[in-house]
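Lecture 7 notes: from sequence to structure.

We start with a single chain of 130 residues. Read the sequence below before looking at the structure.
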Amino acid sequence: MANTVEQRVYEHLTEDGEFVAKFPGGVHLTSAPQGSKLPRLVFWQVDDPNDKRFLCLHGGQARIQLDVWSDNKYDVVELRTDVKTKMRTLRGADGIYVMYAKIANEFTREMTDEELFRGVVDVIVEWQEA
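Now the structure, written as tokens:
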């Protein structure tokens, strides 16, 4: 049972074996272990700016950043599209009710010092406690 938005996103990303198989380096919350295979997916909650004061609805609008890492630019572009498609189907489960997940931003960047490519997908997740 997910108690946080991050947990719900992790459950959603890893419940589909076909999706997970696209990332031999794994799907990771916050950071990947050093030396992880490529491609890999790393995500975290950047912020949740909604007010959480007493007597306010327990919920918010979380911004989740998902990073696809690979040594192949074309893999990054294709996998970034797969991540967007997957996140658009994010819905609620026990503990966290997701009202919607909207793609806010996306880009691909070459990390020249590491000879890697990074594809970023920013998603806004409107949620409330179930």
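The mean pLDDT is 87. Keep this in mind for problem set 3.
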